[in-house]
Amino acid sequence: MNRKNGGERVLTNEALYQKTPQQLTTLLYEALLERLTEAEEAAEAKNYAAASKNIQKAVDILTRLGSGLNYEAGIVADQLEQVYNYAADELVRAVYSGNYEVIGAVRELLQPVAQAWNKAASTSAARTTAGQRTQTQAYDKLSMYE
C-alpha cells in the first residue's frame, strides 16, 4: 500500500489482487466512511467543491458495493441494495439542494452496516484460517513417514 502526496492510501495493483472479496468490501466500507467524514468536514468549512467531490466518490463506492451484491444469498442482498440506493439518492439530493446536513445522517445509517460487515468478515476469516490449519494438519499426518 502506498500513499499519494495528500496522504490518501492507495493500493497497488499487486496488493489489490491479493485481497479476498471480503477484504475488498471491507476496504470499500472504510473508504466510504472516510469520504463521508471528509465531505461533512468540507461542508462545515463551507468548501462545497470539496464536499461535492467527496460525495461523488461516496456515491461511486455505494455503486460498487451494490454491484458486488450476491442476490442468491437471499433477502439481505435486496435490503442492502435498497440501503445503498437510498444513501446514494440522499447524497445526490444534498449536493443539488445544498443541504449538507444529510451527509451525517447517511454516515450514521451506513456505519452499523460497515461494522456488521467487518465483524462478519473477521469471523469468516477466523473460520477459514482455522479450517486451513485443520486441512494442513490432516495433510501433515498423512504425509509423515516414520
From TrEMBL:
Location within or outside the cell: Cytoplasm, Cytosol
SUPFAM superfamilies reported for this sequence: Flagellar export chaperone FliS
InterPro entries reported in the protein's UniProt record: FliS (IPR003713), FliS_sf (IPR036584)
Family the UniProt entry places it in: Belongs to the FliS family.
Species the sequence originates in: Alkalicoccus urumqiensis (Bacillus urumqiensis)
Lineage start: Bacteria, Bacillati, Bacillota, Bacilli, Bacillales
GO BP: any one term: bacterial-type flagellum assembly
UniProt name for this protein: Flagellar export chaperone FliS
Keywords: Bacterial flagellum biogenesis, Cell projection, Chaperone, Cilium, Cytoplasm, Flagellum
Entry's Gene Ontology cellular component terms: cytosol
CDD domains associated with the record: FliS
Principal place of residence: cytoplasm
